[in-house]
Amino acid sequence: MVDILIRNGIVLTQDRQGRVIQDGAVVIDQSRILDVGPTDQLVSKYQADIVLDASKQAVLPGFVNTHSHLWQSLMKGSADNEPLQDWVFNQLMPILYTSNQRLLKENFEGEYYASLLACIESIRFGTTTILTMDGLNPRICEAFQQIGIRGIHALQMADRWIPEEILQPIEKQVHDAKMIYRRWHNASDGRIKIMLGPCTPYICSKSYLEDIIELARQWNTPIQIHVAEAPYEVELIMKEQGRTPINYLESIGLLDLKTIAVHCIWLSDEEKNILKKYNVAVSHNPESNMKLGSGVMDLPWMLKQGVNVALATDGAASNDNLNMLGAIRAASLLHRVTHKDPTIINSHTLLRMATINGARALGLEKEIGSIERDKRADIILIDLSKPHTRPLGNVENMLVHCSLGSDVETVIIDGKIVMKDRTILTVNEEYVIKEAERIKCEYLEEAKEYKPKIRDSART
Amino acid sequence: MVDILIRNGIVLTQDRQGRVIQDGAVVIDQSRILDVGPTDQLVSKYQADIVLDASKQAVLPGFVNTHSHLWQSLMKGSADNEPLQDWVFNQLMPILYTSNQRLLKENFEGEYYASLLACIESIRFGTTTILTMDGLNPRICEAFQQIGIRGIHALQMADRWIPEEILQPIEKQVHDAKMIYRRWHNASDGRIKIMLGPCTPYICSKSYLEDIIELARQWNTPIQIHVAEAPYEVELIMKEQGRTPINYLESIGLLDLKTIAVHCIWLSDEEKNILKKYNVAVSHNPESNMKLGSGVMDLPWMLKQGVNVALATDGAASNDNLNMLGAIRAASLLHRVTHKDPTIINSHTLLRMATINGARALGLEKEIGSIERDKRADIILIDLSKPHTRPLGNVENMLVHCSLGSDVETVIIDGKIVMKDRTILTVNEEYVIKEAERIKCEYLEEAKEYKPKIRDSART
Known about the structure:
Two copies of one chain form a homodimer. By secondary structure, chain A is an alpha/beta fold. Helix content of chain A is 38%, strand content 22%.
């Protein structure tokens, strides 16, 4: 007797061969995939407690969202057509200030409910693994644990270019980071991970970056860092360090660690070659880059050179959603029009970017990212029976260009059914949303008088 | 006693002042809007047969989709990363051939069911007015009539660059066009309209274009035409006519008529100024332009100069959907990234492009496109209560960047509730889809042996 049998679906395995099984089945026992194959073969071989009929559904490995800031879910819809820095200073900073004030008082509920809300949206849109680069709030992982998502908290660190009243002392940051790591790394049978997230190369001083690198080496965990999202960053680093961002990161040894570089828009050819040399994974956030007018990452070069490019939504304040099908579709459209060439990217590759490439970026490719025997059972069922996906054409193409996030019907994470028929089974959705709404109101109220006072408080 | 009272919604009127009523109501009697205002005022003033509670919903004029090819709904998901012309010749032409063979045998059901399916998708995603540039099939308007959408059939005309075996003789085209015009123009109390759709400036000979202009003058209807979608078109027209496309259309008097120019990507500054001078409306199809790698229309110039830009999905074979919220979002993201400037466009303008600008493009601005007293009651209710739209930020911004087509809950067209709680009330959705699927299979089977033989069969 096995736990779950999914039958009669179109199984897009995302395995090495990119196998698609037209009438396929997946067998799950405990947290892992026990078997994958044609329905007729597996149905006669296994008896299951739960049988999920996936007729007219696509069965995929869950999406891996390689970059987000979950707390921003409180702020969705806040930025429209403001310049990036105005919006950061006028809208995000006040919220960060309030959040920081609360952290100092050991009131951790804000990011907890924001993260739960963000995870609800993520799961509803088919994400089974999410990485959030967020502050040192110990309850973010509690949200992962409770809702049942595979979650990675990349601990956001910074000691410069942040208003002093928001910045925590370095010693406290490192202390809190170690506490969170000890409590949460590999919690829930490995479903929860911790890594380090120095925000950008310029927002940490060189000595702090070196401390962070040393810590990541001790922990043997990857580092995630924003790189070259906007030209001003590149200029600043050139001015301060006399090197391009990637050159700088190479020089201090950061790239010797497993690195996930986010955005990677404004890179020189030399920098791109360094990315390749060090096997740096790139987290591509097309919707955020478009909405903020940041620019276009050179996807064709990356793919041609074999750089591992994964997809992400970025935070819900610059997108403004956590819908990976939206990110996939935006990537498809953006690169075709940028290069005025509809052959520059295909749906098959885009779906791999959102699944197995994401797993590889996070160092989890042996555990997740494809539907293969012995991998963790992170699986989503996407309905293809609605008017907008009929008549069915090429399934990969339709998932990328026709399907909506709301077509995700069922989500299984680590062998547990977390969403069934679009209802999350692990938390009370309405309660979480109401708490998140209450907290947003409180934050806005508490931040009303606050005006950020910017000062470079670098150590070096 | 009035027919319908919508209450407690956030009413985004799209009227001249762009009024948003936070707790608003709309009163509908027969096919028209009788009153709009705050809920508390209107509730005490009117008794209604049907009361729709729009709490936590946005109430908008229905979207106006100014360009599509409805029959392509059979082909959604067929094109992935093929060059445009390969796809046209290998995938679209065979279907057109079969369709033409059937038309010659007076078998009209293909486009009828394809159009019904496309209208189902359109309505489900909030479109209340759709223009389709489609062949001379008399049953397309029958589909509009039956499902209850506001429909415009722009009769597609061509006498060159189409394989001879697909092309109908000009005399037959004009005869059929007149038949369709007589039967359908202003049918269903004006809900259905006919206009002329010479496909592109180069796909009609000059003399045929002149005939079409004369016919449109007699009918007093607008003309819709694709213009400057790709550089090769511009080159071809330059070579044949010694003028740029818009110059050419001006020279033959086409722009003296009310004109809707579709795409308008590869225009010179001179051409853009001519568009402005003649008050030509531009139908902008961002997702199609992106997917096909066509290029980027100069939206900031158009908006700055006061050119009326409306939005559209294009056909479902090059998008691959009929989701206007997708088109709105794509336009937002595309122009911000193209100009590397997040302030280049805002959500308020984007929603107007999808509603009142569309109405104006089609010459229907006195009848539809905004929620105002005496206008036709074409109204949609979009749910804002789901996790991905909470907590609520700026509503316009959230509709553009967070909402999905599937959030459209209720659709009223010409005062009739056509969709309620995501169920279409006027046709049997499953029956229509099954018929469309059957027909797609038949088309593919019948077209199996067909290889298009291209020849320029121009008269001039």
